[in-house]
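Reading group handout, session on sequence-to-structure problems. Before we discuss, look at one worked example. The prompt was deliberately terse, the way you'd type it at a terminal:

> structure Transposase, IS5 family

The input record follows.
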Amino acid sequence: MYRPPKSHAQTSLFCSLEEQLNHKPPLYVLANKIDWNKFETEFSKLFDEKMGAPNKPIRLMT
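And the output record:
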């Protein structure tokens, strides 16, 4: 019996992570509604730029 050759295309290899994610989960929707720059501005006032380890993304802290 004849079978068509399997396609081994890797189209997702060159797609961004944003394109690969499911956009329906509530946390995904919520994360895109939050103004993360506002949080970064407010939290940056509490930390010293010259001392300590490099900062982590604000999304990990909130």
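Points for discussion. First: The first helix runs from residue 17 to 20. Second: Residues 15 and 21 are 10 Å apart (CA to CA).
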